[in-house]
Write a structure and sequence with these properties.
Layout (H helix, E strand, L loop, with lengths): L2 H19 L7 H30 L2 H25 L6 H32 L2 H19 L3
Helix pairs in contact: 1-2, 1-4, 1-5, 2-3, 2-5, 3-4
Length: 147
């Protein structure tokens, strides 16, 4: 598995969780569990992706700016997640913020898959793509199991 395949696995999970989350209602157990799962997924993915995808890409002129932009988007999503965590699940504002997060997730993942992946494919060797995938997966699992 290369780095792009490893990242897409988490991307698919993020999309599914975000899609399900905005269909929940009120202060329900379903909303609570989906939010916690999405929060864990986003945090683990961002930490591992920044270390094993974006940091190596920052070293290349072609991928430096897109990498910085991707990291900035992670921080924007972190802020939305924190807003949701600090808002009552039954508040009307909660769903509006969840929809904003949903949009940001889909936008970010599309940017990566349709733009950054292609640029990264040009600057990373095949060996780097495989090595980064192993590092990413190890870090992702380590982050995912943290509490």
């Amino acid at each position: 598995m290369n780095i792009f395949e490893a990242l897409r696995t988490s991307h698919d999970t993020q999309r599914a969780l975000a899609d399900h989350l905005i269909k929940t209602q009120g202060d329900s157990p379903d909303r609570d569990s989906l939010f916690k799962e999405l929060r864990r997924e986003l945090a683990a993915h961002a930490a591992a992706e920044e270390r094993f995808f974006y940091v190596p890409l920052i070293a290349h002129d072609m991928t430096q700016e897109p990498s910085r932009h991707g990291i900035a988007e992670h921080h924007q999503m972190d802020k939305l997640v924190e807003t949701l965590a600090n808002t009552d699940f039954s508040s009307p504002g909660w769903l509006a913020t969840a929809k904003e997060l949903h949009h940001k997730i889909h936008h970010h993942l599309e940017d990566e898959e349709q733009g950054i992946f292609q640029l990264a494919g040009k600057v990373l060797s095949e060996a780097e793509k495989l090595s980064l995938a192993k590092g990413y997966e190890g870090e992702f699992v380590s982050q995912r199991t943290k509490d």
